[in-house]
Structures are given as structure tokens and as C-alpha cells.
Amino acid sequence: MSVVDSVLARTPQPYRSLAIRHRELLKFGIVGAITFFIDTGIFYALKLTILSPKPVTSKVIAVLAATMVSYVLNRQWSFRTRGGRRRHHEATLYFVISGIGVGVYSAPLWISRYMLHLQTPFTSRLVEELADFTSGQIIGLLVGMAFRWWAFRKWVFPAEQSQSRTSPRDRVPTR
């Protein structure tokens, strides 16, 4: 029994059918939570050490590392019932969409830093850190996840097409 199935078994009935209907989204969210911690850990490890003058570069590297983990988890768990594409085609689409996602994730941090000037010496170190966290780890994450959820379902892991597009009455019965 998977983690999601065990949670669903203990979920009160009014919410169970809703959770079952959105099981794929729940799994995507769990993968997102795992990769959020990977992203945040790498982002701050780089931002507070070797890449301190380059927070956007730190963010891009962190998102790329989290994306690699995300592909494996989403392919093997979240979207395992979807697909139909060859693995190399699927992986290429995943990383192209994720590349666009890096821009989507990083844009709020870039706007905060370089358009709104929420950085030292224009503001205090505390305001800079709060602005970086809010724009990079909350706003960027939410906008990026919404984009990736939509794009992955549409292009990378589409619902498999049925083998035949004919209606049941057009089919010749076999005996």
C-alpha cells in the first residue's frame, strides 16, 4: 500500500472521494514538497557561501538539481499511469518544460532584486532575506508549480489515447 493509499484509507468519507479524484495532483504535490526542500537547501547553501553575490544563479542551480529528482519521482510515481511516449522523447519534453519553469521560478526573485531593489545597500539584510525567501521560495514556487502541472499533463505525460477512435457500434463484432 502506497503512502497516498494509506492516507486515503484514513481520510473521512466526504474528503476521500475528492482526494481519490485528485490523487495525481496529491502525488505531484508530495513530489513538489520533497523537491522544495532540496531546492531550498541547495539555494541557501550556495547563496550563503560560494555564490553569495549571485542569488539568481544560486536559484537556477538549485532548481536544476531539484528538477532532476522531480523527473524521476514524477515519472515513477505521480504520472506512472500516463504516458505513451518513448522515454527519451518524454525526458526531452520534461527538461524543456522544466527549463522554461526555471525562468518562471526565477522571475519573481529577479524582479524583487533588480526591479524593486530589495537588496543591500538599498534595504536592510533582514528585508533582503525576507524578500528573497518570499519571491524565490514562495511566489516563484507557486507560479512555477502551476505552470509545470499544466504543461506536464498537457505535453509530457498526456493521458494515453485509446487504441481505436471508432464508436462501439462501428466495430465489427468478433466471435
TrEMBL record:
Record PANTHER family: PROPHAGE BACTOPRENOL-LINKED GLUCOSE TRANSLOCASE HOMOLOG
InterPro entries per the UniProt record, alphabetical: GtrA_CellWall_Glycosyl, GtrA_DPMS_TM
Organism: Saccharopolyspora phatthalungensis
Primary location group: membrane
Pfam families: GtrA_DPMS_TM (PF04138)
Bilayer topology term: Multi-pass membrane protein
Tree of life domain: Bacteria
Family: Belongs to the GtrA family.
Protein name (record): Putative flippase GtrA
Keyword Oxidoreductase assigned: no
Signal peptide: none
The GtrA/DPMS transmembrane domain, residue ranges: 27-157
